Amino acid sequence: DFMNALDEVQPAFGVSEEELQQVIQNGIIHFAPHVDELLKTGQLFVEQVRVSTRTPLVSILLHGPPGSGKTALAATIASASGYPFIKLLSPDTMVGYSEPQKVAAINKVFADSYKSPLSVIVVDNLERLLDWTPIGPRFSNSVLQALLVLFGRRPPKGRRLLIIATSSSHSILTDLGFSENFDSELRVPPISNIHSFEHVLTEVELFNSAAGTRNAIAMLQEAGFGRDDGQSPVLNIGVKKLLSLIEMARQEPDAVAERLLSALLGLGM
Amino acid sequence: DFMNALDEVQPAFGVSEEELQQVIQNGIIHFAPHVDELLKTGQLFVEQVRVSTRTPLVSILLHGPPGSGKTALAATIASASGYPFIKLLSPDTMVGYSEPQKVAAINKVFADSYKSPLSVIVVDNLERLLDWTPIGPRFSNSVLQALLVLFGRRPPKGRRLLIIATSSSHSILTDLGFSENFDSELRVPPISNIHSFEHVLTEVELFNSAAGTRNAIAMLQEAGFGRDDGQSPVLNIGVKKLLSLIEMARQEPDAVAERLLSALLGLGM
Amino acid sequence: DFMNALDEVQPAFGVSEEELQQVIQNGIIHFAPHVDELLKTGQLFVEQVRVSTRTPLVSILLHGPPGSGKTALAATIASASGYPFIKLLSPDTMVGYSEPQKVAAINKVFADSYKSPLSVIVVDNLERLLDWTPIGPRFSNSVLQALLVLFGRRPPKGRRLLIIATSSSHSILTDLGFSENFDSELRVPPISNIHSFEHVLTEVELFNSAAGTRNAIAMLQEAGFGRDDGQSPVLNIGVKKLLSLIEMARQEPDAVAERLLSALLGLGM
Amino acid sequence: DFMNALDEVQPAFGVSEEELQQVIQNGIIHFAPHVDELLKTGQLFVEQVRVSTRTPLVSILLHGPPGSGKTALAATIASASGYPFIKLLSPDTMVGYSEPQKVAAINKVFADSYKSPLSVIVVDNLERLLDWTPIGPRFSNSVLQALLVLFGRRPPKGRRLLIIATSSSHSILTDLGFSENFDSELRVPPISNIHSFEHVLTEVELFNSAAGTRNAIAMLQEAGFGRDDGQSPVLNIGVKKLLSLIEMARQEPDAVAERLLSALLGLGM
Amino acid sequence: DFMNALDEVQPAFGVSEEELQQVIQNGIIHFAPHVDELLKTGQLFVEQVRVSTRTPLVSILLHGPPGSGKTALAATIASASGYPFIKLLSPDTMVGYSEPQKVAAINKVFADSYKSPLSVIVVDNLERLLDWTPIGPRFSNSVLQALLVLFGRRPPKGRRLLIIATSSSHSILTDLGFSENFDSELRVPPISNIHSFEHVLTEVELFNSAAGTRNAIAMLQEAGFGRDDGQSPVLNIGVKKLLSLIEMARQEPDAVAERLLSALLGLGM
Amino acid sequence: DFMNALDEVQPAFGVSEEELQQVIQNGIIHFAPHVDELLKTGQLFVEQVRVSTRTPLVSILLHGPPGSGKTALAATIASASGYPFIKLLSPDTMVGYSEPQKVAAINKVFADSYKSPLSVIVVDNLERLLDWTPIGPRFSNSVLQALLVLFGRRPPKGRRLLIIATSSSHSILTDLGFSENFDSELRVPPISNIHSFEHVLTEVELFNSAAGTRNAIAMLQEAGFGRDDGQSPVLNIGVKKLLSLIEMARQEPDAVAERLLSALLGLGM
Ligand SMILES: Nc1ncnc2c1ncn2[C@@H]1O[C@H](COP(=O)(O)OP(=O)(O)OP(=O)(O)O)[C@@H](O)[C@H]1O
Ligand SMILES: Nc1ncnc2c1ncn2[C@@H]1O[C@H](COP(=O)(O)OP(=O)(O)OP(=O)(O)O)[C@@H](O)[C@H]1O
Ligand SMILES: Nc1ncnc2c1ncn2[C@@H]1O[C@H](COP(=O)(O)OP(=O)(O)OP(=O)(O)O)[C@@H](O)[C@H]1O
Ligand SMILES: Nc1ncnc2c1ncn2[C@@H]1O[C@H](COP(=O)(O)OP(=O)(O)OP(=O)(O)O)[C@@H](O)[C@H]1O
Ligand SMILES: Nc1ncnc2c1ncn2[C@@H]1O[C@H](COP(=O)(O)OP(=O)(O)OP(=O)(O)O)[C@@H](O)[C@H]1O
Ligand SMILES: Nc1ncnc2c1ncn2[C@@H]1O[C@H](COP(=O)(O)OP(=O)(O)OP(=O)(O)O)[C@@H](O)[C@H]1O
Ligand SMILES: [Mg+2]
Ligand SMILES: [Mg+2]
Ligand SMILES: [Mg+2]
Ligand SMILES: [Mg+2]
Ligand SMILES: [Mg+2]
Ligand SMILES: [Mg+2]
User: Fold this and answer.
1) Of D55, D103, D144, which has the smallest distance from its Cβ to F96's Cβ?
2) Domain containing E110 — which CATH number?
3) How far is A31 from chain B (nearest CA, A)?
4) pLDDT tens column, B26-40
5) CA-based nearest residue to A175, from A128, A134, A146
6) How far is B135 from chain C (nearest CA, A)?
7) Which ligand is nearest to the CA of D72?
8) Does the pLDDT of residue E31 top 80, yes or no?
9) Are D249 and D130 part of one and the same domain?
10) Phi, psi (5° rounding) for residue E196?
11) B179-232, pLDDT tens digit by residue?
12) Quick one: B149 and B250 in the same domain?
């Protein structure tokens, strides 16, 4: 019966909670308006699934360049839903799986979700789930077909499901036939703005003082960042990579700002 | 003997009944003349199979863009036939099947149908049954060959069979050699007409009053929908997607019409 | 010994008889001179195999567009041979076979035939036996190689074999290397002539009176069929499809001729 | 010891004798000088293998269009060698073999031959052994690699081996890397000469009298055969196909010559 | 518990120590400034992993032409880290592994590393791990996908990991989607400078006296090396190959310098 | 211990001795200066491996057109080394091996060699080991990857290994990524010189007298061989093929020189 079903669901949920915390352990920095907008839109879909009887299945896509924060945002929305079943489906746990094993693992998560009245599944990093490589291109057609069906298959009567998928390449998905598959597609942009940049520096306390931060920003501006005149270096970096560069720079206390600048220039921006 | 055969058929029928109800639970809205014409033409083929001795096998195809209502219409025609054997063959139940398993499952449904004097099989979503992807293209040739044979194989003496297949892409089927395979091909168009649109809004009671509906329609017309002058946005949406947008819009009671409009514009029409 | 061998052959023959009747249950309508010529030529090869000692193996091909009557004609010639071993090799009985299973099944029929002094094998629908699809193209090379060898392999001493193959595409066979493989290739044309058309209508008694038939033909002629002026619709239909359209039209007793005409026009001729 | 080895060889030889007789049961007609030249050249290689100590391995290729008589000539040379080990390696006995089974069967014949001091192996119909199809092209690379090695691998000390391969396409072999592999390549031409043609007709006694044969030849000449002016039909037919046409023509005693002529014209020469 | 975990790690470390020594047994010659810079940068990343809490995973790539010293440098950095878990993942130990075996072996090393608080894994020779060949191109997609995931997968809480990968072709990695995967990419250049060259000659004592070395260098300069005028031979050789040429030259004591020069010219520089 | 290890090695060596003798049983004819140079260079590498501590692994390639004598030369060098472990790795012994079996067999020879302090492995006929065919091209990537690793993998401490590979196509190896893999690449040219030709004739005593040989050479020169004017036939033949032609010619004692000439012309030189 239903209570038993919920019991069955508990452990799965428990496991997921840990997985979710793992991917958001660096937190969300509100460095730009779109961060809040994305979280709020996610919340709206959480509500729709909770209340509408006509749409027991809603699927959305978060897409954006590598390291722009897709996984952390998807996990945050899922975690905040408060649904009894929350699951992160990630290639991290499927290294070495054969194609049928991958399909079985994916299918099982969807089947498990049907035991809960309300579920959210984060399907993270579609390219890696699909074993996608641009050479060929090659990919797992059996995983692709499974996802195409699962993203459109209505849950059984009385069950509701929200799917949040993430991907680094919108155009690959279109080529593979995922267009028209999602109820909504949301873009997660990289940091391309000197103010967002400054916001992050401040938040992670790379410098001891506000003056230190301002100095660093001034140095970047001098180097041309933020000028946007078609010739100067362009700021275009995922928050994940930026956090990594910051930690590198932190290793040389004497020349933090210089190290940061040269790393940014080294990325070929 | 025959009575035993019918007994054997019963459980299969029971299962299918549930499956069929699942795909038509939102009902059929008669938003345009073609809806009734399609249902009536379907009924004619149901009759032909019931009475003609020279054509114990008739196969038809419902094709149209994603979400235009193919599955719901096919299921409705099948359900209304009153035949003793009605079965929905859908990729939804075959996630993770290997190619031989798929072929075996498909073949079994046809073999089962031969136990009943009159049968209808809905073969839903040919592209997914075929594991079709445009990259390559890749598809399951063994499923394809099985379908090509099964769609043309006469049932044994004294048995009659109606096949209703659905597909989102007529041109793929032609490329794969399905042309000449169907006795009739029927197109299921999307909604491209402001009156059909209004009909749906009214039916699902998105607004409390007829005035609310009229207001929303006026807003769409102002935005250019329905003008058809080559520059204004074109109305072109499957009824399935429209029902989904409506439920989304319903989440913001203060700005239902605005939300609907922006969603429609967001689809790039 | 020989009598035992013949005994072994009996059951196989019995099975085939039923299969053969199945594919010719609608009979042969002598709607054009080529129908009789094809049957007579077939009979000549039947005789050659019966009497010539130098050619214990003769193979012929019936090819023509879909539904032109190839299977029915091949089965009729085989059935009329009166040989002790007659077998229909058809993809209908091999749905879901793996490639090795297909090759084994085909090879077995040839091995079985060697037990009889005189045998005829109808190898029906080469494209489906070969799992042929134009995309790629893809096909079963192991079935192809088996057929290429079997169509040229002499039966053992004292055994004689007639092979009648059918195919909807002569050019595919040439591409695959079947040219030079057959002792004779016979074309089975579609109906492209208003008199053949009338002959069929009369034979199947679509109308109660000769006047009804004449009326229908007149209606077709008015629509341009049979004019052959490069602009009018061209008559070009397999007898199988024509019989199917006729049964459809029969469902609307009030407008039989109109229904037939619109169906023909709907085929895009 | 050697006597035992010869004993072991006997059964293999016995089996092959029957196979060889099977492919030359229609005999060799000496319709042109090249027939005798080919047989004599074959005999020379038989001698070389018998006597030379420096070349214990000799391989030759007979190539020519389909039905030109390659298999019959190779079998005749082998049969006339009088060697203690004579074997026909033919695709006819390998229908349905997997690639490894084919390679094993081929390898076994070579291993068996090493038990005899003098051996000849006819490797018949390389294209079919290789599962060659021009579409792709596709072929068995493992059979190809096995043949490339076996055709160049010296037999063990004290053993000598003559290999006679046949093929319908010299250019395919070159593409596959067989060039430089054979010690000698001999072409087996089709019949392209009216005198050879007449020779065959006489030999098989298609007509009761020399006058009948002369009449037929005159009829062919009237139709343009043998004129060789770039416009008339060209005589170009394998002796195998010609023998088949002759048997067909024999079925109509009243119009033997006419039937022969129309069959030749039907081949599109 | 933790102590047990460390115990488990010990043997793995022991084995690796031997492997590491094997690849650096010829030592590091400090023939150019970049050698020290590379070692120092490596040391910085070793520190970052040791102290930063925000970046428990850092991955770097050493890339450069064949034989430029990538493996020796990576092993030297890893060996000098003093981490409790140091492992060389090399194709040398995986000859004949199937794709799943390779993935399992790779995955196991990463799983093993998670038992240690601090780990460094040298992933040597990515092209060979990936079974890369430019013809096709062909490569193991399952190994590729495993590496793409493993290079980005955060170690479990409380564990830190440094990955040092080596590759001879940066462009292949970019094509395969490895760009953005590494925190830093460092180039290991070949020897292209006559002073570096002289440094190596001196270090390995090819000549008994400094005069001998100077003579050899003079001979090279005469031959045009080091002139860099677009026409003279260009010096461009990996230190590994240079050490090999030196040993060859050493075999002819009478003409060491001549042999070295002709070998260099023979490389087509 | 070491003595046991050597014992283990003995049988392998014994077997190889026989294999080596098999491929050089026709001996080496010193028909041109390059023959001795190649043997001497080989000997130098044998010495380098014996004495240098810095280069425990040396690999060389003998490449040249089919039949130019690569295998015989490689075997001669290996045989003359006097090393305790000498092994011929040849496709001749691997007919019908699957890819994993081939890799295992190759890997085992290298593993076996590590038991001996000094080893030489002849890796004969790389194209056949790789199952190479130019159509596609197709080849065994797993054998390729194994060879790429094994040709660069240092033997364990205290062990030394010389690898002598042979190949008929240098360009294929470059395409496959073998460039930079060998310490030295030596070309084995065909016979393209009338004096080398005469040398061989004399050595094998095709004619009873020097006058007979001179006559034959004069006949060749008259036919234009050796003129090298761009129009005359060019002499270009491997010593292996030449020895084969000579044995053929020997069969006709009356016209030895004529037969030789016509065979040479028949090769299309
Ligand atoms: N506003 C933000 N949005 C998203 N992530 C943030 C934000 N602020 C800080 N972060 C941190 O940045 C990192 C984003 O990494 P995440 O793995 O989510 O990116 P991603 O786009 O999924 O990367 P990839 O393309 O590699 O999958 C996380 O560590 C997260 O805690
Ligand atoms: N006139 C109508 N025709 C079809 N479906 C309708 C109609 N009116 C309402 N509906 C509802 O619209 C939805 C149509 O979805 P359905 O799955 O049948 O579309 P589809 O064309 O099969 O989609 P897909 O291309 O994804 O397979 C169903 O929920 C159905 O109940
Ligand atoms: N003259 C005729 N020749 C052949 N078939 C005829 C003729 N007259 C009537 N028929 C009927 O027409 C039908 C022909 O169908 P058949 O399956 O033989 O065609 P086909 O060419 O083999 O089709 P396909 O291309 O689908 O294999 C049969 O039902 C047969 O009984
Ligand atoms: N001079 C001849 N040379 C060869 N065969 C001849 C000759 N005279 C008569 N024959 C007969 O002609 C037939 C030749 O057929 P055979 O199978 O040898 O041809 P093939 O070239 O091998 O054909 P395929 O290309 O189909 O393999 C045999 O029946 C043989 O007995
Ligand atoms: N400065 C140096 N840097 C690197 N290696 C050096 C240096 N000086 C001497 N060596 C020696 O040179 C050799 C470099 O070989 P190594 O295998 O590291 O090169 P590699 O670039 O990994 O080659 P490959 O491209 O074949 O993988 C080693 O034997 C090493 O001991
Ligand atoms: N100078 C020579 N060099 C090499 N082989 C010689 C020489 N003189 C005579 N021979 C003989 O010539 C033959 C050369 O054949 P071998 O198999 O070595 O050639 P190959 O180049 O390996 O041929 P393939 O390209 O077919 O592998 C052997 O029988 C060898 O005994
Ligand atoms: Mg992510
Ligand atoms: Mg549908
Ligand atoms: Mg048919
Ligand atoms: Mg033949
Ligand atoms: Mg390396
Ligand atoms: Mg060789």
Assistant:
1) D103
2) 3.40.50.300
3) 26
4) 899 999 999 999 999
5) A134
6) 12
7) 4
8) yes
9) no
10) -60, -40
11) 788 999 999 999 999 999 999 999 999 999 999 999 999 999 999 887 777 777
12) no
Answer whether C107 sits within 8 Å of D98, measured CB to CB.
Answer: no
- Which residues of chain B neighbour A139 with C-beta distances below 8 Å? 135
Taking the C-alpha atoms of residue B207 and residue B212, their distance in angstroms, rounded to an integer, is 5
Q: To 10 degrees, what angle do helices A256-266 and A239-250 make?
A: 140
Are A31 and A239 in contact by the 8 Å Cβ rule? The answer is yes
The reply to whether residue A95 touches residue E177, judged by beta carbons under 8 angstroms, is no
Which distant-in-sequence residues (6+ apart) come within 8 Å of D261 by Cβ?
Answer: D216, D219, D220, D223
Task: Give the distance from residue C215's alpha carbon to the nearest chain D alpha carbon, in angstroms.
Answer: 42
Do C60 and C177 reside in the same domain of the chain?
A: yes
Q: Which of C203, C240, C241, C244 has most ligand 3 atoms within 8 Å of its beta carbon, as the pocket-test mutant?
A: C240
Same domain, yes or no, for E179 and E212? Answer: no
Count the helices and strands in chain B (H runs, E runs).
Answer: 11, 5
ipTM metric: 0.93
pLDDT digits (tens, 9 = 90+) for A93-109: 999 999 999 999 999 99
Q: Is the pLDDT of residue F32 over 50?
A: yes
CA distance C147 to chain D (A): 9
CA angle D232, D238, D243 (to 5 degrees): 105
Whether B47 and C247 lie within 8 Å, measured CB to CB: no
Same domain, F205 and F162: no
For C172, nearest residue in chain D (alpha carbons): D135
Rg (CA), chain C: 21
Contacts of D102 in chain C (CB under 8 A): none
Distances (CA, A) of F254 to B31, D263, F249: 100, 48, 10
- Beta bridge pairs of residue C223: none
Single-letter residue type at C72: A
DSSP string, chain C: -HHHHHHHHHHHHHHHHHHHHHHTTT-----SHHHHHHHHHHHHHHHHHHH-SS-SEEEEEEE-STTSSHHHHHHHHHHHH--SEEEEE-GGG-TT--HHHHHHHHHHHHHHHTTSSEEEEEE--HHHHTT-BTTTTB--HHHHHHHHHHTTPPPPTT-EEEEEEEES-HHHHHHHT-TT--SEEEE---B--HHHHHHHHHHTT-SSSHHHHHHHHHHHHHTTTT--SSSSPPP-B-HHHHHHHHHHHHT-GGGHHHHHHHHHHHTT-
Q: Which atom of ligand 5 is nearest to the CA of E29?
A: 8
- Give the residue numbers in C contacting D (CB under 8 Å), as ranges: 44-45, 47-48, 51-52, 54-55, 58, 100, 103-104, 107, 137, 139, 141-142, 144-146, 148-150, 153-154, 156-157, 175-177, 180, 183-184
Angle ∠(C232,C237,C240) on CA atoms, nearest 5: 160
Domain count for chain A, please give it.
Answer: 2
D149 to F243: CB separation less than 8 angstroms, yes or no: no
Query: Inter-chain contact D177–F66, Cβ cutoff 8 Å?
Result: no
Half-sphere exposure of C104 (CA within 13 A, CB side): 6
pLDDT surpasses 90 at C252: no
Q: What is the extent of the structural domain holding E111?
A: 2-187
Q: How many residues does chain A have?
A: 269
Are A219 and A254 found together in one domain? Answer: yes
Q: Which two tokens stand for residue F182?
A: 């060998």
Residues of D in contact with C57 (CB under 8 A): none
The strand pair at D118-123 and D85-89 is best described as parallel
C198 class by beta-carbon count within 10 Å (0-12 exposed, 13-18 middle, 19+ buried): middle
Q: Which two tokens stand for residue D134?
A: 């021009």
Which residues in chain C are closer than 8 Å to B180, comparing Cβ atoms?
66-67, 241
SS3 of residue C108 by DSSP: helix
Are F120 and F233 part of one and the same domain? no
Q: Which amino acid is at A229?
A: D
> Quick one: C76 and C200 in the same domain?
no
